[in-house]
Amino acid sequence: MKNHEICLQNNDTELELGVGYKSNSFFKKSLRKIWQTIVNYLASNQELKVWQKMDRHGNIYWQAYDPVTGKSFMSGSEYDMRAWIEQIYR
């Protein structure tokens, strides 16, 4: 092990972490990846969600929820669902 490295040792494994340029680059890439994961998660929570469901009688209907406005909508008609979505995004 060199002077500029940190060694973490376990009974079965030895892990060396460099403190130089390469580890700094790795650290930056890791932080960037973590940040992107957080941004993607938050963005996905802001997207309109639309899904189809079936009631106990076998009738299919549509449900939607817009987390930005907090509004939701339910209809048995795909046409009505499309109209509601268009109304929200005008």
Could you outline the blueprint of secondary structure elements for this entry?
Blueprint: E1 5-9, E2 14-18, H1 21-44, E3 49-54, E4 60-66, E5 71-75, H2 78-88
Descriptive keywords:
90 residues, alpha+beta, 2 domains, two-stranded antiparallel sheet, 5 strands, 31% strand
Structure, described:
- With 90 residues, the protein is α+β, with helices and mostly antiparallel strands.
- The protein has 2 domains: 5-44; 49-88.
- The chain is 39% helix and 31% strand.
- Strand 4 and strand 5 (71-75) form a beta hairpin.
- The longest helix is centred in the middle third of the chain and has 24 residues, at 21-44.
- The chain is elongated.
- The model is unreliable at 1-10 (pLDDT under 50).
- Residue-averaged pLDDT: 79
Distance between the termini: 63 Å
Name the structural class.
Answer: alpha+beta
Number of strands: 5
Number of domains: 2
How helical, in percent, are the residues?
Answer: 25-40%
Number of distinct helices: 2
Low-confidence stretches: 1-10
CA-atom Rg in angstroms:
25 Å
Give the amount of beta strand, in percent: 25-35%
User: Main beta sheet, described?
Assistant: 3 strands, antiparallel
What is the approximate shape? elongated
Neighbour order of strands in the largest sheet: 3-4-5
What pattern of helices and strands is seen along the backbone?
EEHEEEH
